[in-house]
Design a protein that fits this description.
Blueprint: H1 5-21, E1 26-27, H2 31-37, E2 44-50, H3 54-67, E3 76-81, H4 86-93, E4 105-110, E5 113-118, H5 128-142
Parallel strand pairs: 1-3, 2-3
Antiparallel strand pairs: 2-4, 4-5
Length: 144
Amino acid sequence: MSMSFERYMLDMIQPMRDDLTRVGIQELRTPEEVEENLPGAAGTALVVVNSVCGCAAGQCRPGVAEALQHDVVPDHLFTVFAGQDKEATAKAREYFLPYPPSSPSIALMKDGELVHFIERHQIENRSAEEIAADLTDAFDRYCR
């Protein structure tokens, strides 16, 4: 019995998707979903660029989950998956300029404008607790 590569990848990454959707983050899987949600998101919006890399699993996703336990959180929570939902990720990254593509990464937007961005190099070699602290500081600054 053989399994298609696409089916294999879908099965392999589902737990990585679940790490974020389990804590209430909405997946944006198409460019149209990105366009429907990001530009018009009144208030604040967190956008996590998820990925299969080790720093996403080891630090980014747990750090985001921890930050969302804070008493101040963004109004909207979104995620795109780099390397999987390629077109949606490319569309979301248009809102993160001038930052280059980075996976994983975390964007905080306010009324459609980027106000805080954490790039991959700021995630690697940092603990989930440090990433959560960075996010909660940004939440306190921009989400009140």
